Amino acid sequence: MTPWLQQLWAVTAMNLRNLPARLGTSLVAVVGIGGVVAVLVSLLSMGEGFRAALELSGRDDVALVLRGGSSDELSSAFDREAVSVIRSAPGIARDERGPVASPEFYTIVDLPMRSTGTSANVPFRGVTDRAFGVREGFRLVAGRKFEPGKDEVIIGRGAYAQFGNVDLGREVVWGSHTWRVVGVFEANGGLAESEVWTDLTVLQGVYRRGNTVQVVRLQLESPSALSDVERHLDADPRVNVTVQSEREFLADQSRILVTLINYVGTTIAVLMGIGAVFAALNTMYSAVSTRTREIATLRALGFGATPVVVSVLLEAMVLGLLGGVVGGALVYFGLNGYQASTLNWASFSQVTFAFTVTPRLLMTGLAYSLILGLVGGLLPGIRAARLPVTAGLREL
Fold it and tell me: At a CB cut-off of 8 Å and minimum separation 6, what does 84 contact?
């Protein structure tokens, strides 16, 4: 070990051994930095959970066909003839019943939030039994499926947890029509779990839309078949469509809100980080001032200024790291998997999601805590290095 490293190790070990003597000021820095990390990671985990509910639930081998120029399902519409043209495109998977295509009617209804009682927009989708096959992981977790031709609905697991008036067997009124809740379903934690489903023809009749649907979902033979479907439909003058993979469509839907959440989370973390840096500065200045004699003695014995500066920085980073671990642990054990809902700005309806604290977010929090500790220890470290040896020795 080189003399420089020996000096650094000796000074750093002395600093860390003295931490219990400064427990109060050290805890202020740890709690301050831990609070910043907790806020940062919790906000980012909200964005990660929302993104997972949308983008990560999409599939590359499922295509969504909307009317040309439409960016969402509400602004799209197809009649029966257009649906037939779409179903005839090459590249669509087939079974004994023909092309695996799911025409779907999409609208918005109101439900009260269980937590507050305030009204929220909830997607209401009319589907055929084809919809069950093009949603990955679809299965009933309670009750049964709705019967075709009846005023019955099934509700996604996320919507069931977040909204009121949807208990099994209960009747719910939307407009002038009454529906009975007969089942609860899940779909790999995806967007469908935020929705209410019923029979397509029943919902079309209630809204007096004839044979109109908003979107057609297609099970593709393979992800590469998307281009075949798109080329065929673009060349057909009978339809004007936009074709996207389900994953791409849902990624577009989530982008605005996820970007906003990340921006807000980062901004708040930076502002709170300034306060945490001052707490760390106070702690480290206090540490330097209480060790004036030790630092002066070490300098008189031949210890260089650089090991003194680096040792103070390392001490501050240790405090920052402790704060990062505490903040990350609080968020992970307190929020990871917590079910919530927020407004999807693309569709203006509520989307249920779970806070998702990933290893990447925890590492981001730890990196930020180290940066805060480093910044908080920089000026005290420079002060310690510039401390006049004679002034320090006078205190002996």
Answer: none
